[in-house]
Write a structure and sequence with these properties.
The chain has 17 helices and 40 strands. By secondary structure, it is an alpha+beta fold. Bound molecules: guanosine-5'-diphosphate and magnesium ion.
């Protein structure tokens, strides 16, 4: 059966004809869509051409309407029989209780939907600042994105942050200016805010024009008092689209745009001008269209809609344009055209450059082509389901992943036995036999796989590894303790599970106090963690949320330590010499060819891989550990010392440690634990001698505020919060006189000054300000600040 039919048959009630293609005919109504949930399509359908898959993400600032729009998409595609409502906590994609309570998306949920012969794997991403890691790992596996903006605010702080993340992974995108029904909504201004504030990618190009009528002419009754948003004009076909026939917006009427008296004439003229601009822009960027444009000699009607579609697709894929749509999801206006846009202009997996894999042994980089028969898949998300156990979400880049196959985790060099494969419907699943290249699914039964790991067939000996997903260092820390001894095991287990699910959560034990510490990305992150523990009925107590400071060294030192102890009547002895220096260039990883350098999350570089020239005693006598094991023991010891600085017990950052010599004695004396202990002690002594200094996290903060409050907020940033303002409104101080309703302040601010900033900003802006922040780096503290922090942490 051809795939198209398969998809439609799977999605439609029996014997009903396929719905006509909306874009090709006018005035059509979709058949009523009612789908029993068991009638699902599954993505691994072998006949589904990979060209018809779209792995998409919806990215935006919080509250722009991602979840609301997603709910409509699910409804129009027939996955749900009624529209869920964010405000009532009944959406499909926000399914964790914390998400429903707060009305925000924490974990990105994944959902496939059939739309006009295509399969859209929709990955909803969270918008809150604390969950940038979630966004990062979603973007990594996306092929295209839909950027949603609020038509009143235009580009907001988080939109910029996420846009940059999408730039990093070169993700083609389209944009949807949502909430056009709100008072103060302005399409043109929103597009202009995209042009001004979102750099590094294509030109924002409207492909639609809003039908905004004066109140007196409003037929829809939407909006009270002001102008009414009634629908959109498709600038490619010059048709007017109207959703007012049906309250759920399923019926889309299309009719040729005609001019007429009064408002009709205004609309016609506006749309004609916008179309003219669109065609000219496309022709300027695309040679094929330029030829047609020149041939047409001013008569735009000679350029076919097909030619425009093709040029838009080429340019969107090339990152030269971002087609911009408009609508109001909440009013059920415009969502289907965005879905059409996604399949028309956004890439299928084959339209993306093949991701790079690294052959572990040789360091050689090779592209992973979707047509390569060998399996290569990336684990991008892990969820622990109380009934099904651990579910590992993977994107398959090449080959086919079959259920119940023996796999190899290339990253951890371990065998893994997968059990069932599941197609994912947010919090609900369907078992599938296999998952082919370009698709996304969940595997059950894996034991060791973590986010960012590469999986291949167990008999694949290439050792091909995809780039891992970067984990930002955690900047907040909090102690945690089981309420009673009997609860300890439950707590340890729960933490293990949560840590596997969320790579930006770190659990460690403070060697000094024996306290368990959890660290994460933000206050909300750790707060939600506490709630999730409670949900698992783990009874525990948590300390205050504190900032995870760092300690660093500024000079170099060479240290030799002879470990010589008797423990339980058994002697052990080993000597390690090492050199510790400030790490000059964090990007430089190949400082010492031949010695395996290992970087860590804290920006340290450890050169602990030793060859025979650096080990005395080895080889003269049989029975010593192998060089690889010695290197691992050295690395472990050094890491142990670096994880806890001598000043206040915070991790050491930006140090370079190189083992220069190891002295072994006899195989009985110089055991691996002895070598490890010698390395740890030598590192500790060296750091102590160098008297480390305190560093604090410095955040890059983007604050989005109503234009008239910029002054007050900026004053607070620089005056009260020790902030350094970098730009106002994404531009330098050239004095921009734009009339954006909102402006963006970008500043570098110590994290310490950002604690509780949500509340402070709410106060300063009467609830109309938002901000987003990412870790920029660590800055040395002034002496008096450092003294305060020491007092605060030590408590005296
Ligand atoms: P998310 O944070 O991006 O997922 O945003 P939500 O979908 O949760 O929406 C945030 C708020 O905006 C909710 O109260 C929605 O009801 C509201 N909203 C979403 N879309 C529209 C729209 O088109 N018009 C109006 N007026 N409100 C909307
Ligand atoms: Mg949401």
């Amino acid at each position: 059966m051809p795939v198209v039919q398969f998809l439609l048959r799977a999605a439609l009630p029996a014997r009903r004809a396929a719905p006509p293609n909306l874009s090709s005919c006018a005035k059509v109504a979709l058949p009523p869509l009612r789908f029993p949930r068991s009638d699902r399509l599954y993505a691994s359908q072998p006949n589904l051409p990979i060209q018809n898959i779209r792995n998409l993400g919806i990215i935006a600032h919080i509250d722009a309407g991602k979840t609301t729009s997603t709910e409509r998409m699910l409804f129009y595609a027939g996955h749900t029989s009624k529209i869920g409502d964010v405000d009532k906590g009944s959406t499909v994609t926000d399914y964790l209780p914390q998400e429903r309570e707060r009305g925000i998306t924490i974990q990105s949920a994944c959902i496939p939907l059939a739309w006009k012969d295509h399969l859209i794997n929709l990955i909803d991403t969270p918008g809150h600042v604390d969950f940038t890691m979630e966004v990062e790992r979603s973007i990594r596996v996306l092929d295209g994105a839909v950027v949603i903006l609020d038509a009143v605010s235009g580009v907001e702080a988080q939109t910029e942050t996420v846009w940059k993340q999408a730039n990093r992974y070169q993700v083609p995108r389209i944009a949807f200016v949502n909430k056009m029904d709100r008072e103060g909504a302005n399409f043109v201004r929103s597009v202009r805010s995209m042009e001004k504030r979102l750099g590094g990618w294509g030109i924002s190009l409207p492909v639609q024009w809003p039908v905004v009528m004066d109140e007196s002419h409003s037929a829809s009754g939407i909006g009270s008092g002001g102008p009414a948003f009634e629908g959109v004009i498709d600038l490619v076909s010059m048709e007017r689209l109207d959703w007012s026939r049906d309250p759920t917006g399923r019926i889309v009427r299309r009719e040729k745009l005609e001019t007429g008296p009064g408002q009709k004439e205004r609309l016609f003229d506006e749309a004609t001008a916008a179309r003219q601009k669109m065609v000219e822009t496309l022709a300027e960027l695309d040679d094929e269209l330029m030829d047609l444009f020149l041939e047409a000699d001013g008569d735009m009607s000679k350029i076919s809609t097909g030619a425009l579609h093709a040029a838009l697709r080429r340019l969107t894929l090339a990152g030269k344009v971002v087609p911009v749509y408009c609508g109001a999801s909440f009013r059920n206006i415009g969502v289907q055209t965005v879905m059409d846009g996604a399949i028309h202009y956004l890439p299928s997996p084959v339209d993306r450059p093949a991701p790079e894999g690294i052959i572990r042994k040789t360091g050689e980089s090779v592209p992973v082509h979707h047509s390569d028969p060998s399996l290569c898949a990336l684990a991008f998300k892990i969820i622990h389901d109380p009934k099904r156990g651990t579910m590992v979400f993977v994107r398959v880049y090449s080959g086919t992943l079959a259920a119940r196959s023996v796999l190899k985790n290339v990253t951890r060099n371990e065998k893994e036995r997968g059990s069932k494969l599941l197609q994912i419907y947010a919090d609900d699943f369907e078992e599938i036999p296999e998952c082919s290249a370009g698709n996304v699914c969940a595997i059950l039964g894996l034991k060791v796989t973590k986010t960012g790991d590469t999986l291949c067939q167990s008999n694949d000996h290439r050792g091909l590894e995809l780039h891992p997903i970067p984990v930002p260092p955690p900047v907040f820390v909090r102690s945690i303790e089981a309420s009673s001894v009997s609860e300890e095991k439950a707590l340890t287990e729960a933490l293990e599970i949560l840590q596997r699910e969320d790579p930006s959560l770190h659990v460690s034990v403070d060697e000094g106090t024996g306290q368990t510490l959890i660290s994460g990305m933000g206050e909300l992150h750790l707060e939600i963690l506490a709630e999730r523990l409670k949900e698992r009925k783990v009874s525990c107590e948590m300390g205050q949320v504190r900032i995870n400071y760092r300690e660093t060294i500024q000079d170099e030192h060479t240290e030799t330590y002879l470990y010589d102890r008797e423990v339980f009547g058994k002697k052990s002895k080993a000597q390690v010499s090492l050199r510790i220096t400030p790490r000059q260039n964090p990007d430089d990883n190949v400082e010492h060819p031949g010695l395996l350098p290992i970087g860590d999350d804290d920006g340290n570089l450890v050169l602990a891989g030793v060859d025979a020239s650096r080990v005395s005693g080895h080889g003269t006598e049989a029975g010593f550990p192998g060089l690889d094991d010695i290197s691992a023991a050295l690395y472990g010891g050094i890491q142990g010392a670096l994880s806890r600085g001598p000043l206040l017990g915070f991790p050491i950052t930006n140090a370079r440690v190189e083992v220069t010599h190891v002295q072994l004695y006899t195989p009985e004396l110089s055991t691996l634990p002895a070598i490890r202990a010698a390395a740890q002690k030598a590192t500790q002594l060296a750091i102590k001698t160098l008297a480390p200094k305190l560093l604090e996290p410095i955040m890059n903060v983007k604050i989005c505020v109503p234009a008239k409050l910029v002054g007050a907020v900026a004053k607070d940033v620089s005056g009260v919060r020790r902030g350094e303002i970098i730009t106002l409104d994404g531009m330098d101080a050239q004095g921009d006189t734009d009339d954006f309703a909102y402006r963006i302040i970008e500043a570098k601010i110590p994290l310490n000054e950002m604690v509780g900033y949500s509340t402070a900003l709410r106060g300063l802006t009467a609830g109309n300000g938002t901000f987003s922040m990412t870790l920029q780096g660590y800055g040395l503290m002034a002496a008096d600040r450092a003294r305060d922090v020491v007092e605060e942490v030590r408590g005296f």
